[in-house]
Amino acid sequence: MGKGFLMLVNSQNESANAPNQLEQLRQGIDACDRQLAALFSERMRLVLGIADYKLAHGLPIFDASREQRVLQAAAEAYGSEFPGEIEQFFRSMMRISRTMQSRLLFPFNIVLIGFMGTGKSTVGQILADHLGRRFVDLDVQLEKEQRTTIAEIFRTKGEAVFRQLEREMIAKFSGQGERVLSCGGGAVLRRGNVDLLRSHGCLVLLEADPETIYRRVSRSQDRPLLAQGVTPRSISELLAERAEAYNKAADIRIWTEGKAPAEVVDEIVRQLCQKAAAEQGSD
Ligand code: S3P
């Protein structure tokens, strides 16, 4: 705590005018807040203008290097007295901008679908952060609510009970908010689930080679459908069985092979923007 702050507290204790002094300080804060709110609203209007312009000109909407430059400039100009706080303030402001832009551009859930091990959870978390929105992994949510693991539900109650619980999770989250949702690999095999998810969402299919999926899932114990003797061949067979349902459900398809999760995120945002621009053009 700064020395000035303590001095202020002491002098306030001693002074008979303490309530006046406090009132004055508060009035100073209120005046700052009014200016901040007016400037913040002005900033938001500019941010929306930029989103519109970029969409119309096919430019990437979210630009991490621009954010870095803004942070750098803020640190240089205003960072000497409160460096950590100024950085936090600017980071929050830019996250709010991303949330607002992403709401304007994609006013629906972004739903990641696809086979086990295609990166839905990892990519979903990064995508949500990138767009300043909440991430919900429906399998994780199901496990939290049931206070047990999916493997245990399969073992003790069977797949049919799991699918019913999965449907309930989808019904709970598909209609609300602008979130990033990640679905279990089998969720879109049921038409009813696809209809629910699509009612307020864009479905993004992540795809990968069976060998890559094998490498990612073969060591994990928590995927009951792949628990015993999984091979690239058995994965290929299950993928082939599911291919039609996945393709039918997908609004957007992303081939993830050879891409880092952040690159997959960029590709998703690029395709979502293309879709938004095309839909805006056709209005
Ligand atoms: C399943 C995939 C799993 C999980 C359950 C069933 C499937 O989710 O929902 O084990 O049928 O493909 P992940 O795709 O997240 O591993």
Q: How is this structure best described in words?
A:
The chain is of the alpha/beta class. The chain folds into two domains: 101 residues, Chorismate mutase (Chorismate Mutase Domain, subunit A, Up-down Bundle); 177 residues, Rossmann fold. Helix content is 67%, strand content 8%. The chain contains twelve helices and five strands. The chain has a five-stranded parallel β-sheet, sandwiched between helices. The longest helix has 39 residues.
Keywords:
283 residues, alpha/beta, Chorismate Mutase Domain, subunit A, Rossmann fold, 2 domains, five-stranded parallel sheet, 12 helices, 8% strand, binds shikimate-3-phosphate
Brief overview:
The protein has 283 residues and is an alpha/beta fold. The protein is 67% helix and 8% strand.
Radius of gyration: 25 Å
Indicate the CATH class of the largest domain: Alpha Beta
Main sheet makeup: 5 strands, parallel
The residue-averaged pLDDT reads 90
Compressed to H and E, one letter per element, the order equals HHHHEHEHHHEHEHHEH
Could you give the distance between the termini? 57 Å
| CATH fold call of the largest domain | Rossmann fold
List all distinct small molecules, including ions and cofactors, that are bound in this structure: shikimate-3-phosphate
**Estimated structural class:** alpha/beta
Global outline: elongated
Overall number of domains: 2
Widest sheet, order of strands: 2-3-1-4-5
Label the CATH architecture of the largest domain: 3-Layer(aba) Sandwich
Number of separate helices = 12
Q: How many strand segments?
A: 5
Helicity, in percent? 55-70%
Spell out the CATH superfamily of the largest domain.
P-loop containing nucleotide triphosphate hydrolases
Low-confidence runs of at least 5 consecutive residues: none
